[in-house]
Specification:
The chain has about 775 residues and is mostly helical. β1 and β2 form a beta hairpin. It is built from 37 helices and 2 strands. Helices cover about 70% and strands about 0% of the residues. About 35% of the residues are buried.
């Protein structure tokens, strides 16, 4: 039954009464025939394996290791029962009277030849290739040749020539037959084809139906074709065919190295082609694709281009013209200078402007492809951008295509790893960056937003005016105005302006004159105005601190104080959770892990920041303490707040030193301004006492209401021991402080602190000299 169904399918392939439907019918029916052949192959293989398995079970002396056949089995491994079944299939095939179904069934069962012999398959293909000559209809014969080529590919690794026989390609013979028949039908104006003679289909349309099968056969011949095969095929083309339908596939199917090597000869063939079944422009396009892959000899590149473009520039169909231009713009970009490329683009612009027939929207993808190829193959991007006819091509593009091109251009520029101060280049880059920035909206994915931001940031980093700092600042002002939607870009701009201030400081060796001092103030004012436009609270906090540090280095104390006040006032506004609503998925993260190191970093900077003559030396620290009380996660006692207070105890211990551990050059800190002033000492003592009281309250508040919470108790113990070590290393011991140390140590021990940490603390105290430390050791070791 399966064979009957396969035969009926194969018979349908001989019916060309409706030629327009034949290619679709061929695809559907050959798929069935191929499946039929695969099922027969699997059935015979399985039958052999079962027979071998039974033989192994019956013969204990069998030396066969396994009954399963490998994929690359040989005919000698096949059981005789399976071979007999295989022969029966071929005998049934031979009995089919009609030529077309017999050939298709034999091709479908081609791989089954492996069960009978190792070198019969190639002979079978050669025989079938000659048998196809008996099919009178050119449409049916051409597609039969295509199916033969398909089976050749699927069974190629199993093709073995008989002893003394040379391994040849049967598809080459079928192609020769096609060209001979093509000449015959062409001379008779295809009147022997009934559908053409009756006027049901035109000659050009009929020939176009042959193209898919013909292209496939030529591809098989040309994929590994030698120079001899190439010239043989061209000779057959000249003698029998001389049709652009064949020539276009020869140009696109053989190796680009062969086509490029003989480009001049092929150009002459295209020029002498008489029919218009395939426009000459499309033939030149196929030639150009190979020329782009493998450049022709250097001495003929320009003459070849001139010869081709004499024809291409006369093409009236704008789409066809741009198809050819898309290929040759790459050829020119690869092999010629910007001068030739600029002339070529001028011709493209001329044709596009002349177009009145095709809607402009249909040309965008051609132009976009041209620009992308120019960018990809450019040797000097700066020269490309400076060309008179490059940017006008970009202006032709739609908004969406402009964004793609802008990204490609900016990426190419960034990858050059070069800085520029050229105003033309900078203006162009600025416009391109604005194109991609303006494409961002609320529906843009988070990853896309990050990519665009990073690209613009990289471009900003490549613009460098050297010592002309005012032009650099003006550029950053323009960027701030243009790129308002991207926090990453705004953040980078503020960082870049701070670097400008540092650069000015280095140029002047820290000794500003009136002009540079005014410039620094302008930069700091830029930052102070720009930072509030950011959405992220921590972005603002980091920039405020950085700007304050830069201001202090440049001895701009009042400006630095303004940044610090802004940072302190912003801390209570930081939410407990940071919710990212612009990402593809909403993310919710706690802000406390980021807030703690930030505040400690801010506190370490406040050590060297000068106090206020009226508000006192610690007015900023006082403001910081008040601000953190209002930060929502720290409204109640917690581990993070306790760690902060421990850090502030360190800070006030540093404030108590006669000389601070670090300074800023030419800036007087509190140790110089106030020294051993009695008011300073009293204020310091008051703040330290208050801070220690609050720290102890925080320490006890951690476990308040959580007496059974082991993690809370463990955290309390570790923090208590931390405070012990801080007190021992920063304070002079007296009765009050020694008693506090002992109590804190016992609290830590009762909370289950690490025995190793406690032991090291005791060892540290033992190394200290003094009566109070001996008393502390005695009490710590007492039970």
């Amino acid at each position: 039954l399966s064979l009957r169904i396969a035969i009926q399918c194969a018979k349908l392939l001989g019916d060309t009464s409706v030629p327009r439907f034949y290619p679709s019918m061929y695809v559907l029916l050959t798929s069935i025939l191929t499946t039929f052949g695969e099922l027969v192959f699997v059935r015979i293989k399985k039958k052999s394996e079962e027979a071998v398995k039974v033989a192994m079970e019956n013969d204990e002396a069998s030396t066969t290791s396994s009954h399963i056949l490998a994929n690359d089995f040989r005919s000698g491994e096949i059981h005789s029962t399976a071979k007999h079944t295989c022969r029966n299939w071929f005998f049934k095939t031979v009995c089919i009277r009609e030529l077309v179904p017999r050939l298709y069934i034999e091709l479908a069962l081609l791989e089954c030849n492996r069960f009978l012999t190792d070198n019969l398959m190639l002979e079978t293909l050669m025989r079938i290739a000659k048998s196809i000559r008996g099919i009178g209809d050119p449409l049916c014969a051409t597609y039969a040749k295509a199916y033969l080529a398909t089976k050749l590919i699927s069974c190629e690794r199993y093709l073995l020539a008989s002893p003394g026989q040379q391994l040849t390609d049967p598809t080459a013979d079928t192609l020769n037959d096609f060209m001979f028949c093509f000449k015959y039908y062409k001379e008779r104006e295809w009147k022997d084809i009934q559908a053409v003679a009756n006027g049901n289909i035109g000659i050009e349309e009929y020939i176009d139906l042959l193209a898919p099968a013909l292209e496939w056969v030529i591809q098989i011949v040309g994929r590994e074709g030698s120079e001899k095969t190439f010239f043989t095929l061209l000779q057959q083309y000249r003698e029998f065919c001389d049709s652009s339908v064949v020539l276009v596939h020869i140009l696109s199917s053989f190796k680009s190295s062969l086509v490029s090597k003989h480009a001049s000869m092929l150009t002459s063939l295209i020029k002498s082609s008489k029919d218009n079944l395939v426009p000459k422009a499309r033939l030149y396009r196929a030639l150009g694709v190979s020329l782009c892959k493998t450049p022709p000899p250097a001495n003929i590149r320009l003459s070849l281009l001139n010869e081709i473009w004499k024809t291409a520039t006369k093409v009236q169909d704008i789409k066809l013209y741009l198809e050819v231009s898309q290929v040759f713009v790459e050829y020119i970009a690869q092999n010629f200078s910007e001068r030739e490329l600029n002339i070529f683009l001028k011709d493209v612009i001329k044709h596009v402007k002349k177009n009145k027939e095709v809607p402009f929207e249909q040309l965008h993808h051609y132009l976009e492809g041209m620009v992308q190829k120019i960018i990809h193959n450019s040797k000097d991007l700066f020269k490309i951008v400076a060309m008179a006819n490059f940017l006008p091509i970009v202006d032709f593009l739609s908004k969406q295509d402009k964004v793609k091109v802008s990204k490609a251009l900016l990426s190419k520029f960034v990858n050059l790893q070069k800085s520029t101060a050229d105003p033309v280049i900078i203006h162009t880059l600025f416009d391109l960056a604005r194109n991609i920035h303006d494409s961002i909206d609320e529906l843009t994915y988070g990853d896309e937003r990050k990519q665009v931001s990073q690209l613009i940031v990289d471009v900003i980093r490549r613009v460098d005016y050297g010592r002309d700092l005012e032009r650099q600042l003006n550029f950053f002002v323009d960027c701030r105005r243009a790129f308002t939607q991207l926090d990453m870009v705004t953040f980078e701009l503020v960082v870049r302006v701070c670097l400008l201030v540092v650069k000015a400081y280095r140029f002047m060796s820290g000794k500003h004159n009136r002009k540079t001092s005014a410039f620094v103030k302008a930069c700091l004012a830029y930052s102070h105005i720009t930072i509030p436009s950011l959405d992220g609270a921590f972005l603002k906090l980091r920039l405020y601190l950085q700007c304050a540090q830069v201001a202090l280095v440049n001895n701009m104390v009042s400006q630095g104080e303004a940044f610090l006040k802004s940072a302190v006032s912003l801390i209570p506004e930081v939410p407990e959770y940071d919710i990212d609503e612009r990402a593809d998925r909403k993310t919710k993260t706690r802000t406390e892990p980021e807030m703690l190191p930030y505040v400690l970093n801010l506190a370490s900077f406040l050590l060297i920041f000068p106090g206020h003559p009226k508000n006192g030396p610690f007015h900023l620290v006082k403001g910081l303490l008040n601000a953190v009380q209002k930060y929502k996660p720290w409204e109640k006692p917690c581990v993070g707040k306790c760690k902060l207070y421990l850090g502030l105890v360190h800070l006030f211990a540093a404030f108590a030193q006669r000389s601070f551990p670090y300074h800023v050059t030419k800036v007087d800190s509190n140790d110089t301004l106030f020294g051993s002033n009695d008011v300073y000492e009293k204020s310091l003592s008051h703040f330290t006492g208050t801070l220690l009281t609050q720290t102890l309250n925080q320490l006890h508040g951690i476990v308040e209401g959580k007496e059974k919470d082991r993690s809370a108790k463990a955290a309390q113990g570790e923090l208590a021991l931390d405070l012990v070590n801080i007190l021992l290393s920063t304070m002079t011991m007296n009765k009050h402080s020694a008693t506090l140390v002992v109590k804190l140590y016992r609290l830590a021990k009762s909370s289950g602190v690490s025995a190793k940490y406690a032991e090291r603390t005791v060892q540290n105290v033992e190394k200290m000299k003094g009566t109070w430390y001996q008393d502390i050791i005695a009490q710590l070791k007492a039970k």
